[in-house]
Amino acid sequence: MTENNKPQASDDQQEQSGAFSDALKASREKADAEEAAPARTLWSDAWKRLKKNKLAVIGAVWIIFVVLVALTADLWAPQLLGSPTDIDTTTVAQSSKLPLSPEHPFGTDATGRDQLVRVIYGSRVSLTVGVIATLISTGIGLVMGALAAFYGGWFDTIIMRLADMFLAIPYTLFVITMLAVMGQGIQNVFIAIGVLGWPSIARVFRSAILSVKENDYVDAARAMGASDLRIIARHIFPNSVASIVVYATMNIGGAILTESALSYLGMGVTPPTPSWGIMIQDGQTFLQTQPWLMIMPGLAILSTVLAFTLLGDGLRDALDVKMKDA
Predict the structure, then answer these.
(1) DSSP letter at 170?
(2) Are 177 and 33 part of one and the same domain?
(3) Number of C-beta neighbours around residue 71 at 10 A
(4) Backbone angles phi and psi of 283, in degrees to 5
(5) 301-318 per-position pLDDT tens digit
(6) CB 135 within 8 A of CB 198
(7) What is this structure's pTM?
(8) Cys bridge to 290: 93, 198, 246, 286, which one at CB 3.0-4.6 A?
(9) Does any domain span residue 230?
(10) Is residue 12 part of a domain?
(11) Cβ(179)–Cβ(192) under 8 Å?
């Protein structure tokens, strides 16, 4: 009986040894695969999630399209559609307020200029104001928010009360007052919008810094003798930049809307420079007879601002660390 059991015991040991070897091999293969796989980061995960958000992708595609058209307009738009500013006095009577047609897809204005080419060149103004104003407000907001959150105390109190004062004043009225003092022009428009837009970004960045400044890696950097500027630039800012990216993206749309409102009120870009707000102002007189003079620039504002809003919403969801890869 004992002799018969020896071969069976030997077989069991071999099976166990084989199973152990298979398990060890599988574990090694899994470890090798994990090492070979690219390291996951916040931005790589965010990019994967952003690509799954169809509305954000649509917004990004539209923004890219508008930017490309605006940048390349000089190469083809005047040749195909005519000048966005010059008025041909000899043909005004024949070409004034023409309806939509293959030759003039957006019709013509009261002076015979093609509406599509003016919308295209108006996008340059809107995008320039939106981007530069956002860069100005973001730069000021980052500095103010960093000082308030990192040093606290009197810095925090003074800066936050100053931000409260700016936020308490009606934004558009404040911008109009600044432009009344500084004068009209595209440079003064984005300076006014940028300078007055910092309080909201400062609050966002301050909150982001407060959530990470007490982490162990910040204390370790401080213990190693790192300067305050290095700690903010190397450790705090990279871990707080996600919220700033989201807010800045949405802020571009808000700046475009503000510029259009200012131009509509006659406080923004000066004619004959094309601006979506100026085009709406010029077209309101003919709303009942030639509605496309207002509708087309209005649709340009709506679609562009909506695109930045959709992209901002998508970035907010994609950069949320609580979101899963589902």
Answers:
(1) -
(2) no
(3) 12
(4) -85, -15
(5) 999 999 999 999 999 888
(6) no
(7) 0.81
(8) 286
(9) yes
(10) yes
(11) yes
